[in-house]
């Protein structure tokens, strides 16, 4: 019995020892580690079969158990994970240290600014108490830039003096208190923010400032930022005229810059500046710039009349290297954009520091950070495209769209004679090849040229973000897919290029395929596939899909002052990196900020079948105005079409009609998505001094009922209940209903959908149409005869006749009825209403 117990103990002890030997620590030789590392590089987590195969194939590993090799790989993966985490934490620590330093400097600057304001306040108090003392203007926190005569710019000594002054003034803005900076609305700094952004509060011109941390060396950052056309989308060209070294190792350059106009309603801008690059004693790199006096400087005399000379006050970039790599950037943009040269309604666009911050200052910092992330490999794009290629596509789309909007003479653009209606501008470029402006190598020759139809309109109470997002996601609501197919086919160098394009039927559906986006998703690059099928039986099984390359930007509702864009161009299905582009699209720029508005819910239903209820959201018209979106925006539309010489007039007519139809569709969409639910073109009032849409609709129907009470006639169904239903039925009434003012030259102030269709116009252009324009001579005579009858008895029947739309097309109608529209007091005649029964185009 004792012997059996002893044998059992020995057997158990041997089993335990064998188990411990299998899992004990093994000291690997250098050759064994190298063999294992080679396998780890190929497969960090090999299977059991792979480990056994490794032992068989590598004799130096034959004395190691499979379990020990498994443990080695587990430890190796753990060490790799710890190494990556340690590296990440070190990087985060360096960034936080640099950001902490930046915040401390910003805090010191703010403390200095507070001290300065306290001193200025005390000084002003003393001046006010002393009645005999005069007010000293030195207390104002306004930066003034002395103009330098052309005499100073003709010699190096004068330029060196200007450069030294520019450097001192720029540094006082970047790190000092020369400008009263306030935090940019909606850009609160935080751990995930790009940087710290501020705008000027009380200084001459418009100014913005940005501070941020970027993982690039100062020289690389300066090289990127000096190439302004690569990151500033509104920069048309930048040409260095003269460059010579400064005495302290820096360089001085004389630079001429042209800036696109954002809309067709304003001229472009240009700058004639001195740019000074130098290194400070602390190792910081500075690039500062300011305007030189003299409006005649510039390379292109032909294009000079299309530009307004603007002023750049001391601006630039301060780039300081950080310990452990990377740099801290201070960016200052200070401009005087000469707002006097644009219509008064657009002046907020040129007097807003928020717009300069979004377009230039923030864009510069974002672009540098984008390049830094692409360089480090943090950004991965789709369809196998390199980041630089996709970035070039975005720049070419934006540049081509800006070229179309501005239509510069030195690019070959000229205006066509219009048909009398000024709502759509037609420009022709007969000397232009597709792609020549962006890249001459990427061009294909056309037998005729390129035609651009463009227009701008003012919208009110329409959030730009919501409208552009809707246009992107619901293309079928405004676009004609056959026009897209025409543009795509005309760019193909094939035997069936236009005008003999194969007949195609489009399903109306689109597929959005993302290509890439910027680091904060403020810009999206994507390919749009428009599904189509051939109508020819022999090609029934051949796909006739059309493809568009598209960028969508400014769809962040929290970005104050940012414009929203949707720009697209037809491309081939397998578009190469140098594919020619002919961009078209929309640009919507806010002119005013949101006033007392809570955050707008942009996830509302955007289906027109459910949201085009004209009075749906106006039921709360008496609600507090602080909950409404109260802003104005300018919407610019530009579409480009290739053409052959013998088809120029036909393409021009097609383009004009197409853009007008797009305007009408956009107007309808804008009305549907407007939070106030009223006409976005006319704002809360249909015309100056007129009532809101709901009230006017009620007056129209009530006056009609009172005038024709003896006949028991009613304009709408008697079961209509509520103001919302009245406006909705009036809007969708089958007959054209129009209202005109009682002025010496009556003009239209309201039209329902049928009325807009009959006149072939939009709510934007409606108030520019006078009553006499739509009638021929006989119609005007009949109207003059019956006008007295209308004013005396309240109504009149007009016989059948012919009227004319804004596009010159004749419209026949069986009967027209005119009646007075009385205001709520039933004593005041507000306007005249007309209804055209059973109208149709002749």
Automatic annotation (TrEMBL):
It is found in: Nucleus. Gene3D superfamilies: 3.30.530.20, Homeodomain-like (1.10.10.60). Residues 21-84 bind DNA. Residues 93-120 form a coiled coil. GO terms for cellular component: nucleus. One of its GO terms (biological process) is meristem initiation. Residues 19-83 form the Homeobox domain. InterPro entries: HD, HD-Zip_III, Homeodomain-like_sf, MEKHLA, START-like_dom_sf, START_lipid-bd_dom. GO terms for molecular function: DNA binding; DNA-binding transcription factor activity; lipid binding. Its main location: nucleus. The keyword Repeat does not apply. Transmembrane segments: none annotated. Pfam families: Homeodomain, MEKHLA, START. Residues 152-380 form the START domain. The keyword Membrane does not apply. Keywords: Coiled coil, Differentiation, DNA-binding, Homeobox, Nucleus, Transcription, Transcription regulation. Belongs to the HD-ZIP homeobox family. Class III subfamily. This is START domain. It comes from Dillenia turbinata.
